[in-house]
Amino acid sequence: MRFSIYQESLIGGRNVNQDRMGYCYTRDALLMLLADGMGGHIQGEVAAGIAMQTMSALFQEVASPHVKKPERFLEDGMFAAHREIHRYRVVNGLPETPRTTLVACLVQHGTALWAHCGDSRLYWMRRGQIISRTRDHSRVEALIAQGQLDASARETHPDRNKLFNCLGAPTIPAVDMARPATLQPGDVIMMCSDGLWSMLPEQTLAAAFGGGTVVTAVPDLVHSAATAGGKRGDNVTALAMMWEDGGMQDAGASIITSLVPLGAVTTTIHAPRRADLEDADRFDEQEIEKAIAEIRDAIDKSSRLTSKE
């Protein structure tokens, strides 16, 4: 694999930056993550950090050197992150569970697959055009999908930040999985928090990568969004990867994973898992795993019923 990647985050007008982003890669696989701790609940930055660390740890365990079951990996990783956030609440005796959004993208064999919970977005762009993006798990998106609200109200509606799905909530999260995307040289995968996408028009996001590199486009977008948000603006975070495999000549700023030794993992997510999570009661973990298995069975049954209709 060959790609260029860049990430940046600004605190904006907030006292704490609750956004987290990072990536890991082996010789044959790349995992990109972005989480936005929810400020309406306690310790959102902790939830975001736990989600990042959990997904990174699982990737480093199973990517040898690629992930054999990518869909299952993304789903299991998000469920595991949800479980670890709840475990953190129990161990630390918190009055409520911290919560976070999470968007994750796995790239291997020239194909990208992504999943998300919440309203942190992923954009897939090609030649300055948006091919696809995630749909927010928000009340506004639900109303638009039901035909009760015009899409033009998406960025200005007062309920645009009200989410119905995230990690750390009392219920098991719904993991929204995209279809695998075949990448072409020059394609860009950008992940960002709502502090960025809520401040800048989508055409601005796409145009930034139309003729530039991720190294220049990402900081330009992040700083523009922070400026637009002003003193009351949210945290602004973006991570973008440009796919270069086999079709681009200038590899000066590129990562070439064929140089990575077999069995090695490179990661920007260095924070260790919290020791207090390791001491939690295993019974809780078994109960959560049982609940996850029951949910999978229900989904399978629902799919079979749908296919018969």
What would you note in describing this structure?
Helix content is about 35%, strand content about 25%. The chain has one domain: PPM-type phosphatase domain (Phosphatase 2c, domain 1, 4-Layer Sandwich). The chain is built from 8 helices and 13 strands. The strands form 2 sheets. Strands 2, 3, 4, 5, 8, 9 and 13 form a 7-stranded antiparallel beta sheet that branches. A 6-stranded antiparallel beta sheet has the order 7-6-10-11-1-12. The C terminus is likely disordered. The radius of gyration is 19 Å and the shape is globular.
Task: Name some characteristics of this structure.
six-stranded antiparallel beta sheet; Phosphatase 2c, domain 1; alpha+beta; 309 residues; 8 helices; disordered C terminus; 23% strand; seven-stranded antiparallel beta sheet
